[in-house]
Design goal:
With 494 residues, the protein is α/β, with parallel strands linked by helices. 30% of the residues lie in helices and 27% in strands. Strand 9, helix 8 and strand 10 form a beta-alpha-beta unit. The chain is globular, with a radius of gyration of 23 Å. One of its GO terms (molecular function) is ligase activity.
């Protein structure tokens, strides 16, 4: 699909490709399709001029947008492997990840260098000097330089000898490294091949078949690539929630992709939606999807995806709301995706879009998700919670994911079940519920009494109405922080 995108950009170079929003929400063209293609050509030429060739690794710390997409196209064209770096991960984690990936070059924009604290060292040597490790290679700035940034990637490098777009490269070759977790002593990194990356993008393209000139709103590669390939411009979501609401009103996008926290914030700001709305990267209950549809969306979809396999399943709000069994329905496996629980109930996934391996480890056809799940009679995936989130109370294993969906009654924004120490090696089970803005707390507690009463032996010991801490780039509920919050509020067990 990246080869098709390159061709599509050049076929209509004058058309808008990437849009941003003014403070009034009005669209502003950030880059045309021709400018994106030209930028990708320039990056490919500069990387080729530095001697980088197919199979080499390039670290990438560039904010989502036209430059990041052009870097991806350049890496794809040359057969380079991109290691996605999060500059906000902290110096110890960042160094450990760089030591594992060992990139020949790191590409970073000025903002990433400032966040990572790279600026001053790079001003001296433009290299990452790591303790007890060989130098990992030079760093180059992508986009405007600020004082103290590394030297710029040469925008005027000769174009001769650069492989043409669509050059025949091995589909089994590595395409991208994405770090997911792991300690500084042993980072964890997902490796996708060119074939698995292409398969994932093709699956996304089949999910939302954006067409024509109506814009799509979203900032991830898995939104940008399929939409631009089909000819639709992509609007990057405004960072300010009120501006985002105005942006949605003015654009009326045919498809919108926002994470659940951003959807909740947009709804709180009175946003109206249009066309189809997609959300993922964090839990999205039926209540949230129904609120999105009530706010104007024709369809509201939850996407179940992992870094190791994107996407795996999807479910529309009406199907999710009609599901009355225990657990969280995330939909039928998408075409090509194989799903099964192992002997412990953990969900295993496989298929063309599955990662090839973890960096430094042997290939494995099955992705171990860490989610407990079952397949219902229709073959749909029903999540029962994270294996590691299990709460042990009175010698009984309680999996929060089985019961949390029932807590999302009207007026609830977010709800999680966490365990906190009971002082005797046991745990207390606490339901922490985040009310929607303006919800009446007394009425909310009354509404929660019915689903809480149906939990049987998993009935929580306490119910707290609190704002739930979020963490990570996808802003998922931070269960450890929520448990700590519950422990502070409730005090020692008696």
């Amino acid at each position: 699909m990246l080869d098709r995108l390159d061709h599509a950009l050049r076929s209509r170079p004058e058309r808008p490709a990437v849009l941003t929003a003014t403070r009034t929400g009005a669209p502003r063209v950030r880059a045309t399709r021709g400018e994106l293609a030209e930028l990708a050509d320039a990056f490919a030429a500069a990387l080729h001029a530095r001697g980088l060739r197919a199979g080499d690794t390039v670290g990438v710390a560039v904010r989502p947008g036209p430059r990041a997409l052009a870097v991806l196209l350049a890496l794809w064209r040359l057969g380079l492997r991109g290691a996605v770096l999060d500059p906000g991960a902290g110096p110890d984690v960042l160094r450990a990840r760089l030591a594992l990936a060992r990139p020949s070059l790191v590409l970073a924009d000025a903002a990433a260098q400032a966040v990572a604290g790279w600026a001053r060292p790079l001003a001296r040597r433009a290299r990452l000097a790591l303790p007890d490790l060989a130098e990992l290679g030079p760093v180059a700035t992508v986009g405007p330089r600020l004082p103290g940034c590394a030297p710029a990637l040469d925008p005027d490098a000769p174009r001769g000898g650069v492989p043409a777009p669509g050059a025949d490269l091995d589909g089994d070759a590595d395409a991208v490294i994405v770090f997911t977790s792991g300690t500084t002593s042993r980072p964890r990194a997902v490796v996708h091949t060119r074939a698995s990356l292409a398969a994932g993008m093709a699956t996304v393209s089949s999910l939302f078949d954006a067409q024509g000139d109506r814009p799509v709103l979203g900032g991830t590669f898995f939104v940008l690539v399929p939409a631009l390939t089909r000819g639709a411009p992509v609007a990057l979501p405004a960072g300010n929630t009120r501006v985002l609401a105005r942006q949605l009103h003015r654009l009326r996008p045919q498809d919108t992709y926002l994470t659940p926290p951003r959807l909740r914030d947009a709804l709180g700001a009175g946003a109206r939606f249009h066309g189809r709305v997609w959300t993922g990267s964090a839990p999205a209950g039926a209540g949230l999807l129904e609120r999105v549809r009530a706010a104007g969306a024709a369809e509201a979809w939850g996407v179940y995806a992992l870094t190791e396999l994107f996407p795996a399943a999807a479910v529309e709000s009406r199907e999710k709301s009609a599901f009355e069994e225990a657990g969280d329905l995330v939909g039928a496996p998408l075409p090509g995706v194989l799903a099964k629980p192992d002997e412990s109930g953990q969900l295993l996934l496989s298929g063309p879009a599955a990662r090839h391996r973890y960096l430094g480890e042997e290939p494995d056809a099955w992705v171990r998700t860490g989610d407990r799940a079952r397949l219902d009679g229709a073959g749909r995936i029903v999540l029962e919670g994270r294996s590691k989130d299990m709460v042990l109370r009175r010698a009984e294993n309680i999996y929060p994911g089985l019961y949390e969906p029932a807590l999302h009654v009207p007026g609830v924004e977010l709800a999680v079940l966490v365990g906190i120490p009971a002082g005797d090696g046991d745990e207390r089970l606490v339901a922490v519920v985040q009310p929607q803005r303006g919800a009446d707390e007394r009425a909310l507690r009354a509404a929660l009494s019915e689903p809480v009463g149906r939990m049987g032996t998993a009935r929580p010991d306490a119910l707290l109405l609190e704002r739930i801490p979020l963490s990570g780039r996808s802003r998922k509920p931070d269960r450890a922080a929520t448990a700590a919050l519950a422990a502070r509020r409730l005090g020692p067990a008696r």
